[in-house]
Amino acid sequence: MNAVQLWSVSRTYGRGERAVTALDDVSLELAAGTFTAVMGPSGSGKSTLLQCAAGLDRPTAGRVFIAGTDLTGLSENRRTLLRRDLVGFVFQSFNLMPSLTATQNVELPIRLAGRRPDPEAVRTALAAVGLADRAGHRPAELSGGQQQRVAIARALAVHPRVLFADEPTGALDTATGHGVLRLLRDLVDRYGQTIVMVTHDPVAASFADRVLFLADGRIVDELVEPTAATVATRMTRLAAAPC
Amino acid sequence: MLTIALATLRTRWVSFAGTFVALTGGAGLIAAMGLVLAASVAAPPRPPVRYTGDVTVVAPHGTLTVSTAYDTKTERLVDPPGLPADLVARLGAGVPDRTFYAQLAGVPAREPAGHGWSSARYTGYALTAGSAPANEAEVVVTGGARPGDRVEVRTLTATRPYTVSGLVASRGFETPVFFADSEAARLSPRIDALVMTDPPDTVRASVGDRARVLTGVELGELDPDRDRDADVLNDTNALVGIAGGFAAFVAIFVVASTFGYSVVQRRREFALLRVTGATPGQVRRMLYGEAALVSVVASALGCALGAAGAPAVLDWLIRLDMAPAWLPDSGSWIPLAVALASGVTVALSGVAVASWRAGRVRPVEALREAALDTRAMTLVRWFAGLGTLAAAIVMIGAAVVDPDSATSDKTYMPTVMVLVVACGLLAPAVVRPLALRLTAPLRRLRGATAMLVRENALTAVRRTAVTASPVLVTVALTGLLGGAAGTIDVAEAEQSERSMFADYLVRPVGAPGVSRALVDRLTAVDGVDAVAPVPTTVYRVHAGAVLVAWPAKAVTAAAVPNVLDVRLQAGAMSTPDSASIVVPDNWGAGVGEYVDVWLADGTPARLRVTGVVAEGQYPDAYLPARYATALAPLVYVKLRAGADPAGVERALRAAVAGEDAQVLTKRAWAATAADRSADASRIGLFIVLGIVLSYTGIAIVNTLLMASSERGTDIDTLRLTGATNGQVLRALVGEALLAVVAGVVLAAAATTVGLLGLWLALLRLVGPTAIVMPWPALGAVTIAAAALAVLATVLPVWRRLRRPMALAE
After folding, report:
1. Nearest-CA distance from A208 to chain B in Å?
2. How far is CA A56 from CA A12, A70, B315, B323, B738, in A?
3. Which part of the chain is the ABC3 transporter permease C-terminal domain (chain B) (predicted)?
């Protein structure tokens, strides 16, 4: 079964003459256990694609399915509950609760879902991202890379069907960023985690199984088994294309 | 970096608005209270009330002048005699004006007064219905009857039937009964004043120095409620003084804490400035400049609001009878200057402390995701907090050592303020253990709310403490002031019950005293001794040099020593109608000797000493009842041995039936006598407290709005982590309520310490008494604070939740 499905999804911001079409009739299917990167120049609609696919934003037209569930027409609250069970997020700016320790941040989505966190499972999750010895630290006491690892552990705490990552290495230096990307790759290979990642970094995209190229709200290209070099070439071509 | 700048700007706007509101309100409060105080303190001489129009009035001096061995002494007479008959005869012209006790039976009257009808036209009365009294049996009144009605009129000596011939409109300062001139002369022969229409100089020439000749503003000296009015003005001064003190205190407290917090909130901004190259000195200078500008503008606005509001406050006090009605609004600029200066000073000193910290913000903090605020108690704060707490305890200790002063507002109020400040300073230290303890029972729950509330409170101690501060002030002031009022009332009730010898008391209702007929009936009741002392004064030259106005009671009854707390050292009480006196032992006169005194109206009298009373610091002298010139304000009734209390009580109530009086048991009397809850000054204090508390209510909302401005990112993060709107609201409301609880706990601590001190002082003063807590008021104030906190949390969060989530790009 496909983890994520988009049926001719469009998203328009604003009205009338000033309307901006961020997504224009996009359809795609992402199989379970795959790592997909979404690339494109600024303003190509890649963040909108991620937000619509993850149920954070409501498309103007079309339908979105996560793990077979149709998100169309669900209320904000219903979508929240669904996201909580099916989707995990990792952001460029980590978005950790500054008041909570690493452990508590990981526990948060479990508690929000009304379940009792299993201390052993939380420890394992932190160990899996290499932070077993930082469990009691608060975000301000962690480095950027460590914070992003906590965010990944948190996203995985509820065992989501899909993990959405929005520029996860955008705020990290190259070496730390690589660490985080290797971790994501590892999750796909070892646990069959489905991951969708938006990025503008060809090196980051090269960790994925497949790269989708977006321009002006449409999917214009696709690359399977990418390398940093092939991705960079396609990107250059996209940027050079007349608008 | 752009988002940081934008977020800083938003935070800054709210914190700017927050300090602005706190300052405006605080300065407004100080200005309004200051203006009312200025109006009351600088009250001009009261314009004449009773006499109206262009008249000249001849009145007796009303003083007693005695030549002693060394010089001449003068004392004011409490019951001045009328004008000398020969003077009245010599002047020939003029309208005799008489004032004496008279009121309609069964009609409660304030300042009852009987007059002859011919004085009515000079004292602002004109008929509104009926006609003037045509004969001895007719009266004109202000209400309670219609022309043609038969009424009973009480005077000092008797109650007689009259017919109402006409009505006049009340003028407020007295409740008059106008008799025909001849009847007035019969009831009160003396002439209290002579109203002349001749020019003052002519009158003065013929009067000489035998009496006062008054005209214009001087006529105010003859107003009947002049003393009472002065008392009211005194009360107003005290009330507004206390209220102004508290207003200033609360305003300073709230402004200082708000300003301190606004600087803490802007840490990130200061760090950014430091990154861009600002030196610590530049950051500080910027802060001072901003604070000066904001505080001048906000305080000026507050002054304008205060000046606009002051007349309304004064009006309110007047309407509630807590200030004399003629008091004009103050045009003084001093309260406004004080309000402006305090606003600016408090803001600048608030910044002085905080800016020192702000200047030390290291540039790297700008790059941090969020600064944790787990250690809000600095060494200086510990020092200041424990110092003020020690000061409060020393003040309480001093009050316990000198218990007489403990119950006075002058001692208690500053203690209250110092206690509240101490608790405010120590608040951050309490937040942590409190948050842990309160959320401990929820810890085992699987929900996220308890964890979020606990951790957010623990890592934002300053925020929690600053939110708790206005709650602390609100609840502590209610508890400390309300608790003290109730506790002192109960202690006084117990005190007066303990020192009361009589078993029952009969007191007048709507009248100045108990009628003589009723006193006679009460005395005749079987099985009791009834005594009706009438306060008066005897004047005596003490030690051959000093003229002393000595308090005395006019009373005749052998039973006096049993019923009143009178300890006869020698001799016996005076017999009726005798020219005798019972003197205090410090007069140095023995039984059988004669003493020369002057009576309340200045009449010299040589009285035989029949008894000597001892002990007590200021024992009264006792005169026979025939020297009484007023009605007894209270009748003391004591059961004789073996009498049946139930039967006696029935007989007493039967005797009182139909009279303007009621029977009270000793206990009931003590409770009502000490219950000052209906007192003007008490009500006034609570009303002004209400104004102060509405300001602290604004402060609660204000600080919470300021606090919520820094929560936007947290809210979005929670939502992205999967929190529903309800869960986000629950977590933030939980935090706000935790802060409210912290405030209430601190207030409870302050109230406990303060009232315990008062209780210890009262223990030494009157023995063990109950501490009376104003539970309904405390409950209402706490619920209101919690409701405001919830509202001020939910509204901005709700607005945020309606927006789409801000995703980091």
Report:
1. 21
2. 15, 14, 58, 64, 32
3. 242-360, 687-804
Distance in angstroms (rounded) separating the CA atoms of residues B138 and B161: 9
Model confidence at B328: pLDDT above 80:
yes
Same domain, B651 and B677: no
Phi/psi for B348 (5° steps) reads -65, -40
Nearest chain B Cα to A152, which residue? Answer: B721
Out of B369, B719, B808, name the one closest to residue A140 (CB). B369
pLDDT at residue B372, as a whole number = 57
Residue that is last in its domain, among B607, B642, B672: B672
Instruction: Number of A to B CB contacts under 8 A, please give it.
Output: 102
| ipTM exceeding the 0.85 mark | no
Instruction: Give the best residue of A74, A77, A111 to mutate against chain B (max B CB count within 10 A).
Output: A111
**Cα A153–chain centre separation:** 13
Residue in A closest to B374 by C-alpha: A99
User: Number of structural domains, chain B?
Assistant: 4
Q: Which of B641, B657, B672 is the last residue of a domain?
A: B672
Strand partners, B540: B548
The answer to whether residue B442 sits within a structural domain is yes
pLDDT score for A207? 94
Q: Tell me whether residues A140 and B723 touch, CB distance under 8 A.
A: no
- Do B195 and B97 contact (CB within 8 A), yes or no? yes
Min Cα–Cα distance to chain A from B30, Å: 39
Per-residue pLDDT reduced to its tens digit, B495-535: 777 777 888 999 998 888 998 889 889 888 888 888 899 99
For residue B737, name the pLDDT band (cuts at 50, 70, 90): very high
Asked if residue B192 and residue B132 are part of one domain, the reply reads yes
Element containing residue B58 per DSSP (H, E): strand B56-59
- Residue B638 CB partners (closer than 8 Å, separation 6+): B501, B502, B503, B504, B528, B529, B530, B559, B562, B563
> Does any domain span residue B171?
yes
Question: Among B365, B730, B807, B809, which would you mutate to test the A interface (most chain A Cβ atoms within 10 Å of its Cβ)?
Answer: B807
Q: What is the CATH number of the domain that holds A86?
A: 3.40.50.300
- Indicate the pLDDT class of residue B406, thresholds 50, 70 and 90: low
Could you tell me if B805 lies within 8 Å of chain A, comparing CB atoms?
Answer: yes
Closest Cα to residue B687, out of B382, B316, B397?
Answer: B316
Is B442 near chain A, with CB under 8 Å?
A: no
Whether residues B257 and B207 share a domain: the answer is no
- Give yes or no: residues B579 and B646 share one domain: yes
Q: In chain A, how many domains are there?
A: 1
- The answer, for A229 touching chain B at a CB cutoff of 8 Å, is no
B765 shares a domain with B680: yes
Where are the alpha helices (H) located in B127-279, listed in sequence order? 181-187, 200-207, 226-265, 267-275
Q: Which residue of A has its CA nearest to B725?
A: A77
List strands edge to edge, sheet with A20-31. A20-31, A2-13, A61-66, A69-70
- Cβ of A187: how many Cβ atoms within 10 Å? 20
* Whether residue B277 sits in one domain with residue B140: no
Closest approach of B441 to chain A, Cα-based (Å): 15
Range of the domain at B576: 504-672
Domain membership flag for residue B567: yes
How close B459 gets to chain A, by Cα (Å)? 6
The residues, ordered by sequence, that sit 6+ positions from B54 with a Cβ below 8 Å of its Cβ are none
B621 with B717, same domain?
Answer: no
B598 and B668 assigned to the same domain: yes
B572 occurs within a structural domain: yes
Identify which of B455, B453, B457 has the alpha carbon closest to the alpha carbon of residue B428: B457
Q: Measuring CA to CA, how many Å separate B568 from each of B563, B565, B577, B611, B622?
A: 12, 10, 20, 7, 11
Mean pLDDT over B699-714 rounds to 83
A97 touches chain B (CB under 8 A): yes
Query: Across the interface, do A76 and B372 touch by the CB < 8 Å criterion?
Result: no
Q: Which of A60, A93, A95, A101 to mutate to probe the B interface, most B CBs <10 Å?
A: A95
